[in-house]
Amino acid sequence: MILDPIDGRQVYVEDCEVCCNPIEVDYRFEYTEIVDFEAREIGQ
Predict the structure, then answer these.
(1) Neighbours of 27 (CB within 10 A)
(2) pLDDT 10s digits, 1-44
(3) C-alpha 40: how far from its chain's center?
(4) Residue 19 lies inside a defined structural domain of this protein
(5) What pLDDT sits at residue 40?
(6) pLDDT at 44
(7) Global pTM?
């Protein structure tokens, strides 16, 4: 998974590389440091 290190919060959906189910990725950078990350399975 490649994350864009722009300042602020980013949320997007992508397919899991292992099972191909969609996951929501939510992360936040401050300057070039990642300060928060969460990946959630989207309910089926």
Answers:
(1) 19
(2) 888 888 899 999 999 889 899 999 999 999 889 999 999 999 86
(3) 9
(4) yes
(5) 94
(6) 61
(7) 0.76
Question: In the prediction, which pLDDT does 14 show?
Answer: 94
Domain of residue 20, residue span: 8-41
Residue in the structure block whose two tokens are 């990725």: 25
Tokens linked to 7? 């300042």
Q: CA 15: distance to chain centroid?
A: 11
- Number of structural domains found in the chain: 1
**Chain position carrying tokens 């397919």:** 15
Structural contact between residues 27 and 9, judged by C-beta atoms closer than 8 angstroms: yes
| Assigned domain for 12 exists | yes
**DSSP-derived secondary structure for 1-40:** ------SEEEEEEEE-TTT--EEEEEEEEETTEEEEEEEE
